[in-house]
Design brief:
With 164 residues, this protein is of the alpha/beta class. 20% of the residues lie in helices and 30% in strands. It has helices spanning 25-35, 44-48, 80-89, 100-105; strands spanning 2-8, 13-15, 39-43, 60-63, 75-77, 94-96, 112-118, 126-127, 136-143, 154-161. The protein is globular, with a radius of gyration of 15 Å. The structure holds NADP nicotinamide-adenine-dinucleotide phosphate (NAP). Residues 6-7, 14-16, 18-20, 42-46, 49, 63-66, 78-79, 97-102, 105, 126 line the site of NADP nicotinamide-adenine-dinucleotide phosphate (NAP).
Length: 164
């Protein structure tokens, strides 16, 4: 099973200068809980944004066009087909964690969406690709808790792809 796990602002912004545009520890906690249920796939730039990769206790898979690229304890792949083949061999979900190029590549394949909506606008240079939400059912909505460490109002949503 393939999922997307991401956070976006009201305009669909997801990144700024190689990092997240906001600090929201509650969302980092949610991200960790979700992704620990499976393995993770990310683009090479998102890998660069992670302080001490790999993400622990998950198989980390990275997509790059660079066939020479290597990183300790990380599976490096160069094509979408290689990812789909690998995902078939996994007995757990493969959580796709960005960024924009990688979400775009799998938008017709993804089964479940974990979206954190941040109810503000931020400056940014990377946007979530458009998703046809009419193809999905919203199955869970939870309001995030705002406090002194989590100052941005936010909502956690889970969508499942509709089956014909
Ligand atoms: N808010 C969120 O939930 C969230 C989630 C993830 C990331 N982000 C943010 O988004 C930004 C990074 O995302 P991004 O969209 O710029 O980059 P990205 O998708 O993480 O990585 C892009 C790279 O993926 C590789 N790639 C792309 N298409 C490919 C293909 N068809 N085949 C093989 N490899 C391919 C290329 O690597 P090479 O250049 O090595 O060939 C490309 O440069 C950062 O600011 C990060 O903090 C936010």
């Amino acid at each position: 099973m393939l999922t997307f796990v991401w956070a976006e602002d009201e305009n669909g912004v997801i990144g700024k200068e190689g990092e997240l545009p906001w600090s929201l520890p509650n969302d980092m906690k949610f991200f960790k809980e979700v992704t620990l249920t499976g393995n993770v796939l990310m683009g090479r730039k998102t890998l660069e944004s992670i302080p001490n990769p790999p993400l622990k206790n998950r198989i980390n898979v990275v997509l790059t066009r660079n066939t020479e690229f290597e990183k300790k304890d990380i599976i490096i792949l160069n094509t979408k087909d290689e990812v789909l083949e690998l995902a078939k061999t996994m007995d757990k979900p493969l959580h796709i964690i960005g960024g924009a190029d990688i979400f775009n590549m799998f938008v017709n394949d993804v089964d479940r969406l974990y979206r954190t909506l941040i109810h503000e606008t931020f400056e940014g240079d990377v946007y979530m690709p458009s998703i046809d939400y009419s193809l999905f059912d919203l199955v869970e909505t939870v309001e995030g808790h705002v406090d002194e460490k989590n100052i941005h109002a936010h909502t956690f949503q889970i969508f499942e792809r509709k089956h014909a």
